[in-house]
Amino acid sequence: xxxxxxxxxxxxxxxxxxxxxxxxxxxxxxxxxxxxxxxxxxxxxxxxxxxxxxxxxxxxxxxxxxxxxxxxxxxxxxxxxxxxxxxxxxxxxx
Length: 94
What we know:
Blueprint: E1 2-11, E2 14-20, E3 25-29, H1 35-51, E4 54-58, H2 65-90
Parallel strand pairs: 1-4
Antiparallel strand pairs: 1-2, 2-3
Helix pairs in contact: 1-2
């Protein structure tokens, strides 16, 4: 199983989880209500599931609130990714 690295980034007072995939960076907004950006990020992750199993790991978990939230978010997201991969495998989609 491959491990994708993630970071918490602050751009113009907006926080994002940035996930480094092979050919692109996937950005999930944390402090902004952007349903289209979240949907786009999830679509990219689902496409990535087709390539193979992976796990997302936060490179550095700081003491700040956004790092703590991002770490928990990724824990939940990794569970969901494993479940989706299992269902896709069951239906021969991967």
